[in-house]
Amino acid sequence: MSTKETLSFQTETKRLLDLMIHSIYTHKEIFLRELISNASDAIDKLKFKSLTETDLIPSDYKFKIEIIPNKENNTITIKDSGIGMTRDEVINNIGTIAKSGSKAFVEELNKATETNDIDIIGQFGVGFYSAFMVADKVTLITKSPYSDIAIKWESTGDGSFTLEEVEKDSIGTEIILHLRTDNEEKEEKYSIYLEEWKIKELVKKYSDYVRYPIQMDVTKEVPKKDAEGNPIENEYEKITETETLNSMLPLWRKNKTDIKEEEYNEFYKNNFHDWSDPLATIHYKVEGNIEYTALIYIPSKAPLDFYSKEYEKGLKLYTKNVFIMEKCKELVPDHFRFLKGLIDSSDFSLNISREILQQNRQLNVIAKNIEKKVVAELKKLLKNNKDKYIEFFKEFGRDIKFGIYNSFGANKDTLKDLLIFESSNSDKPTTLKEYVERMKEEQKHIYFVSGESRSQLEKLPQMEAIKDKGYEVLFFTDKIDEFAIQMLMEYEGKSFKSINQGDLELDENNDDKKLLEEKEKENKELLEKIQKELEGKVSKVKLTNRLKSSPVCLVSGEGVSFEMEKVMNEMPN
Ligand code: ADP
Ligand code: MG
């Protein structure tokens, strides 16, 4: 039975399609890399399944991706021998923005529609829809090894799609793009994607490292041969042969010295849903007891879902070039959950289970190693390019502070030198090390003050005496700052002290102290009187050396500071 059904896209999908079709986005050519990357993912999945389900495919099964341009029909087809999709999978994967139907996405989409900023598309893994940037009709024919029937999905991107049962003899997916017609006026040239040279160029540019052959029949003019097989001079003939367009060598297997920065960046953007270049790339190989290759990226921006529950940390895991899992979370500590990348190790068996992996000793060693490498890379960045580091810290610094706080200080030695704070002595945020280096000889503490903003804190009456002393004050404007510092307790033997709290120990000379004591005695009655007036509001009224031009200030006792008290009051019990 083959009936044709018409179904509607989700509202979000409709919006997205609209955005795709009407956008003035200039990088339309990326549709090809999106479809190739889907094809490659689908082959990965089939290959992985076939490791345990041995009768899924014949032993001589060919994993490949084919590109078939057809100038007569004005179509380009991308065909793979991957896992394909059942009817339900087509509806779930292609008809909806499955993982992205979240509120955050819709909000971002609205913003993007206003500003015509299409960069969010890559982040949400809506790659398939990029087909509509170049095609006015898309046909997808697919067969899963888990279903007897093949499915044809078709849409003109106008809000609905059709589904139909069809014949297809092989497993896999075929996507036919009916290209839009050229519009010279708008300088939109779609027929270019039917040209052999253009397709070759795009595959080289975006998909060279894809691990399966990307093939195309190419027509060549070659010298004609005579009966004995010798070339005849000046006589040529056209022959068609299947050519593999990509080199297939995974990028991470290549030598570091042979890889250009753009290649690393392209690879990142292709594989990790980001349209901006990464901030830093870490690529290294370990040999010996445990062998593995790591290709790790520090993104330059936090992804949109970074602070949502949906965000999952982890690196891709490969063993001997075979894809094992998308997010191996054991490989990265929480405070580096922003990392993207992959590990390829020959030390794991192909069908290792999640449970076994969790207790795997090698995996732990690799994870520790990765952490060390990342710390070293960040320290290098901090030293050589502070501005860039500041950018990094704006995006991901909170995770590092939480890392110190959440581990009850267990990670403090690893992370303390990655912290930077605003400070009264410099325009740029400073490290604790820099602070200590600038400390006055007689200065006992690292002073800080917590509050909403730097400008507000600079005006505090308490600042004056400290500034007079020439001491520096760190401004803690992030709520977590003070919690993290409490876990650190000290830095290079210097304890932290809030200028709002207890005795400032400004190292007054003895004369000053005596004078203060005398004055306290003289004014005993007055002080007691004020204290009585304010009973229940303050616990003690004292004379102080910490003020210069302001007559009075509030400070907290030795325990919890005002700011921490505020944060703790806000916390749900
Ligand atoms: P993503 O690749 O990030 O998941 P896409 O929009 O590119 O997002 O694809 C959506 C989903 O459609 C994929 O996750 C996959 O399940 C399915 N899909 C797309 N192309 C193929 C294909 N060639 N073979 C099998 N499934 C596919
Ligand atoms: Mg995709």
UniProtKB/TrEMBL annotation:
Protein name: Chaperone protein HtpG
Source species: Hypnocyclicus thermotrophus
Binding site for ATP: 34, 38, 80, 85, 93, 99-101, 123-128, 173, 354
GO terms for MF: ATP binding; ATP hydrolysis activity; ATP-dependent protein folding chaperone; unfolded protein binding
UniProt cross-references to Gene3D superfamilies, sorted A to Z: 3.30.230.80, 3.40.50.11260, Heat shock protein 90, C-terminal domain, Histidine kinase-like ATPase, C-terminal domain
Task performed by this protein: Molecular chaperone. Has ATPase activity.
Location(s) in or outside the cell: Cytoplasm
Record bears the keyword Nucleotide-binding: yes
Coiled coil (residue ranges): 509-537
This protein's GO CC annotations: cytoplasm
Location (main, coarse): cytoplasm
Species classification: Bacteria, Fusobacteriati, Fusobacteriota, Fusobacteriia, Fusobacteriales
Quaternary data: Homodimer.
Span list, region A: 1-354
Homology family: Belongs to the heat shock protein 90 family.
Keyword line: ATP-binding, Chaperone, Coiled coil, Cytoplasm, Nucleotide-binding, Stress response
PROSITE patterns in UniProt: HSP90
Domain of life of the native organism: Bacteria
Pfam families: HATPase_c_3, HSP90
